Amino acid sequence: MMKDTIIKLDNVWKIYQMGEVKVEALRGLSLEIRKGEFVAIMGPSGSGKSTAVNMIGCLDVPTKGHIYLDQHDISKLSESDLAQIRGRKIGFIFQQFNLLNTLTALENVALPMLFQNTDREKRLETAKKLLEMVELGDRMQHKPNELSGGQQQRVAIARSLSNNPEVVLADEPTGNLDSKTGEIVIRFLEKLNKEGKTIIMVSHDANVARHAQRIEHLKDGRVVKRG
Amino acid sequence: MIKDYFIFSVKNLRNRKLRSWLTMIGIIIGITAVVSLISMGQGLKTAISLQFGDLGTDKLAVQASGGFGPPGTAVVNPLTKDNLEEVKKVSGVKIAAGRLIKPGKIEQDDHATFSYVASMPDREARKLIHEAQNLEAESGRLLKDGDKGKVVLGSNLGKKDAGLGKQVVVGSKIIIEGKEFEVVGILKKLGSFILDNVVFMNEDDLRDVMDVPDKDYDVIVIQVQQNADVAAVQQRVEKVMRNERGVKEGEEDFTVQTPQAILGQVTSTLFAVQLFVYIIAGISIIVGGIGIMNTMFTSVLERTKEIGIMKSIGARNSSVFSLFFIESGLIGSIGGIIGAVFGVLMALGLAFIGKSLLGTDLIRAEISPWLVLGSVLGSFILGSLFGILPAIKAAKLNPVDALRYAK
In A, residues 69-128, which contact B (CB 8 Å cutoff)? Predict the structure, then answer.
């Protein structure tokens, strides 16, 4: 493993038991991502993209194989330990934005810090800065349903950064946006990458994926092409 | 941190206002019932104690048995003058007096009300009653031997709102069961439902007006001699009464009781009623609790995706558990607080209605701060208890499945 490797998947299998049938979502997937990289993961539906993202994001553990985050094997950790790790080290951006509708933009961005037991004052201060960074300083008290899709995704970007994670994991971040708004979101991700964050982006859109430095093509649960 | 979870939970409740309120109604009804019923029950207990409270431990009451109720009702075989004469001879009995207590109609001008008319015995026995019941005249005087056509009224009957038209005062003429009497005295307030509404007249007058046979009595009141053993006197009186009435031991058609024993009997009956009421209230609280559980399970299902989001951004199982646990505890305690307020208001309201409409002190509310605190705390615990299972379910959700969950 290289010294600056941040995430490494080593021969990872994920097998779901669906009644009588075994579904092999990942079949010996190996993948290595270094600090500061902007990597895109591409593949058709059913290729195991989502399962791979869940593994990288510490949302799920593999049936077989190992996952290393920052040189630590996380494949056997409990759900609560995983939650702690992903809260600190990984920022999520989803296709559906996945903001909490009951909370304002500011509260949404501050929420991950609550789960890390950060003081209220510090939480609000950081959240404000992050919202200003994504140019939503004037929308802090708005709830998600009062914001446009692009604005919601920018709130989600701000939220993904709130615990200052090393990795930002974006699962089809432009999937629900028109191309112009999508472009703005991608530009934010590029900006983050330039500032040193590792960005892993899943997409099926080659136009979006080309912004990455490297593309991993997935098919049938393993990498078929690197580039 | 707990404070932040708290704020978060309040937000969630407010976001589902209608359902939160509907869920709370179950708890509110239960706690309202508990607080008001217990307050009224305590009030009733105190009121009843007051009825008996003035009677000392050195007194006994003989009654013909026919079920407990106001003396003079539902009695099969009444006490007699002969019974009284025999009781007087029992060793240890200082004074024994026969009394009649009958319901009667009281009129003045064209206004009428119903109350109890009680007889006053003569001589020492009169003194005994005066002392035992603490009778003092607020205005006018008490009855004397030989008073004919004269009555003394309980304090409530001398009030403006006694229901007898113009206020009855000393010197007023009132009609009792069709005969005219002169009011010679109004009693001081005693806090006893019966004594504050009673009409006292001498025994001969009462027999005449109510058409009571010469030899009948409703109650024989006994004062035991100083230093005598009350229990022993009670047994001797029972023995004499058995002989006199020709009944065997165990088949008595009368009772000899100390006021305390009667009070005890009433209290135990009251306790049975209270217990029944508590059970009903308890059931309604448990139903309310199940309502909370139901709502919380629905809420977990509805917020599955939200739980997935929270977990993906770092919420541990314990954080998710806390959020839901606090929420159900909140439903419980808010419901409890509202219920306690309603319960207190209801108890006070009923007591007020009882007092102003029925003129009775029996319906009164006695609200203990412990009852209010306890019911609020209890409903918090209830809400939390019934919230545990849904909260565990929420905490245990797999983040991947939860995130994929679509409404």
Answer: 79-80, 83-84, 86-88, 92, 94, 98-100, 102-103, 111-112, 114-117, 120
